[in-house]
Structure formats: C-alpha cells, structure tokens
Amino acid sequence: MSTLALQSRRVLLPDGEQPALLLLENGRIADILPHGSAVRAELLDVDDRAILPGVVDPHVHINEPGRTDWEGFDTATRAALAGGLTTLVDMPLNSAPVTTSVANFQVKLEATRGQLHTHCGFWGGIVPGNAAEVEGLIAAGILGFKAFLTHSGIDDFPNATEDDLRQVMPILARHGLPLLVHCELSQDDDSWKQNDHRSYPNYLASRPKSWEDEAIALMIRLCEEFRCPVHIVHLSSANSIGPIAEAKAKGLPLTVETGQHYLFFNAEDIADGQTQFKCAPPIRERANNEQLWAALQQGIIDFVATDHSPAPPDLKQLESGDFTTAWGGIASLQLALPVLWTAARQRGATLSDLTRWLCENPAKLAGLGQRKGRIAVGHDADLLVLNPDASFEVTPDMVQHKHKVSPYLYRQLYGVVEQTFLLGKQVYQRPAFTQLNQGEIITR
How many other C-beta atoms are found inside a 10 Å radius of the C-beta of residue 22? Predict the structure, then answer.
C-alpha cells in the first residue's frame, strides 16, 4: 500500500482555503486531517504553497493520429503536467481520422500507447450522416459529443445542420451526455478577403457577434425542446450572456465555457499581422470582454478552457501576417492556470474561484465530478502545488508544446506550478518530469 501525506497551510477544499494534511493512499485522497496531524506516512510539507486539485481541461485538440506534426499525445500531455493539468478531454477533430465512428475511436485509443502522461478522455463528433455511430461510441466510452455549426477548418469534419442535431439530441438526452457546440451560424461571404490581409480589425469584423448569438439562440431552443445537456464552447460574444442567463434561470441543462484568451487579451491591443492571436470566434473588444469577466464571476459562464489548437509556424503565417490564410487556433495548454490567475487576481478573484473555474466545473461537464476536480475524501489524488505569488516570463525554452508559437510568449505571468501529482504519485517537480506514462484513459 502506497501512502503519502501532503501538507500545506493553504489547501483549496470545497468549502474554502484552509490549513490541512492530505492522506493519499492507492491513488485516492484517503483522509483530510488537521494541519500538523501525526501520521504513519512519508510527509511532504509544502509550507505556504497552495495545494489545488489538478486542472481539468475539457477542450484540447491533441491532433493525434494524423497531424502529429501539429501536436501529439506525448508533447500535449507533457505540457499539461508542467502546467498542473492532470485530466484532458480530447476533441474529435484535427486528428486524422476524426473521432466520428467506433472504428476511428479505436485508432485514436491505439495512438495513446506509451505516451499518455496525464489522464485523457475523449469527445465524439457529430457530423452529417453519423447518427448511427452515436450509440456505439457511447458504449465504447466516449464522454459526450461535439458539433460545429460552421465550417470547422477541417474538411473531414463538416458542420452539422439543425436536422443532424435533431437526430442525435434525443439519444444524448436518454444517456445524459452533453452536446458541445461551436456556436457560429456563418454566412458565405469572402469579401473581407479583398481588404487588408494583415488587418486584425478586418478579421474581427469578418466573424461578427451576430453569428454566435443566432447559433446560441438555436441551441437554447433545441436544449429546451429535447432536454439534452448542451454546452456552449468558447463563448466570445457578450450579447449572448442575457439569453444564457435566462435559459439557466428556467432550469435548462445548459452550460457555458469561455477561453483564457478572451479574458486576457483585447482586440484593441492586437497589432496588424499578429496571426498568433487568430482564433474563431475572434478575440473581441475590451468592453465585450469585461462583460465576459462579469458573467464568469457571477456564475453565468461556468468555467474556462483553453481550446488548445496548435499548428506549425508556417500554417500560422507568422512571417506574412496574413489573417485570411493563417490557421485559427491559440496554443496555450501549459499556461492555462497562470494566464487565468494573472488576469483574475487583478479583479479580486481568489484561488477558490480559480479552482471552481479550472477544476470543479470542467470535471462536472465530463461526468467526472465524483472523481476529479475537488480535494475531497475518495476523490482521485490528482493535485498540484502552486506558488500563487511568484511570477515568471514565458520563454520558448520552457514551453513543452511541440511548437513554440503562442500569443503568451514573453508575457510575465503569475502562478508558478511547482509540483504535479497523478493518482498520488509526484510526476512533475519544476522544472523536471519525475515520472512519465502514468496517465489513464478515462471513460464515463
């Protein structure tokens, strides 16, 4: 029996931050004792460093198999450990094949062998014509399903129509599984590409808030009709906050995330040609993003997820600065916690808030709320040790992602992850990995 006692004056428990000693046995939190308790176990006292649950990121594009020149399980899960992330849920696209059938899912699972350094679950995909695969994917362990209402950027993952969603939502409602939706109802209009290709305001105007607002209104209607859990990914339009709040007040099974980049950056600060900032929906103006912050702090937005969507430098068009052809995606997996904490601490947020936004609520979406995301007896001993008051500069040499392309490079961030634990085992002690290949495949 492996036993470790982990002690701190700052343990983030569900009812707040307090001194405590955590007894970790056989991968679980066996007991939570008063600080200074005598125990028969190896004791690791981290003094006044904070102990948080491991971060859960349910919106990650790992891109393997098929596009491992973009990212892969080895590099993505190493980056996660270095950032205190212990559980990821991989999106069904950007890999090849996409996770839209049982056969393709088996190919995905095989690709994880020998290179899963964090826990990892998987979303299935909803595309036109694959409704017959949904039950099989659920039986195979998929945690839920993702659909796009606009072109995904990948031709083998076409957008779903309302008719496609109507076929699958009764199935998901019966199983209680969430439907995650990229909410943009786009209009075919490439006229913006006739304007300045390097202009960020030009790109921003090409994806207006109305696209999001109309798509979210559709999903609220379908959520009410089918009572299928619906999750809005990467909300960027503050115009939809009111309708979302109303839907939640009616008791609809609707949840919402936003991304760190919408809370950290503002359109006014993005210079022309800075394609490392390109994502969809786009990073919007400061006034809009302040409303996102308010909605997060009020609980209207449930949590924050990275939408880690990396690509090689040539696809990001870093040299040309061409927004019309650059891949849209922000690489940020390793920096999920410090990016959010840096911005949140300026707004009076606490580590308890951070734990709710990065750990507890994301775990609930993935159906893992009884195992992960909180420091509670019986939960998995996935933990991180954080120095919340220390800062560091993001430099290319410290980034574990496959490509050192990120809008966060050379930023000064607060929140240094000093240690990461996976099922009670220390797997990372800054700046080195102490154990690898300790991750588990997660099924619901």
Answer: 24
What pLDDT score was predicted for residue 192? 64
Global confidence as pTM: 0.97
The per-residue pLDDT for 1 is: 45
- CB-CB contact of 180 with 144 (8 Å): yes
**Residue 269 contacts by C-beta under 8 Å, 6 or more apart in sequence?**
none
Q: How many residues does the chain have?
A: 444
The structure tokens 């008719």 sit at 163
Integer Cα distance of 221 and 218 in angstroms: 5
Contacts of 302 (CB under 8 A, 6+ apart): 255, 256, 257, 361, 365
Tokens 């036109």 sit at which residue? 128
pLDDT digits (tens, 9 = 90+) for 124-143: 999 999 999 999 999 999 99
Give the orientation angle of helix 241-249 with respect to helix 286-298, to 10 degrees. Answer: 20
Strands 179-182 and 230-232: parallel
What element of type H or E holds 337? helix 336-345
Residue 154 to residue 25: CA distance in whole angstroms:
44
Low-confidence ranges of the chain (pLDDT < 50): 1
Sequence-separated (6 or more) residues with CB below 8 Å from residue 102: 133, 136, 137, 140
pLDDT digit string (tens) for 261-293?
999 999 999 999 999 999 999 999 999 999 999
What does the block give as tokens for 290? Answer: 């302040």
Rg over CA atoms, the chain: 21
Instruction: For the chain, list the domains and their CATH numbers.
Output: 55-365 (3.20.20.140)
What are the C-alpha distances in Å from 127 to residues 44, 157, 254, 302, 432?
A: 49, 6, 21, 26, 41
- Looking up tokens 């690709």 gives 111
- 8 A C-beta contact, residue 365 and residue 231: yes
- Residue 227 falls in which region: left (phi positive, over 0), alpha (psi -120 to 50) or beta: left
Task: Give dist(CA 406, CA 429) in Å, integer.
Answer: 24
Cis peptide before 431 (omega within 30 of 0): yes
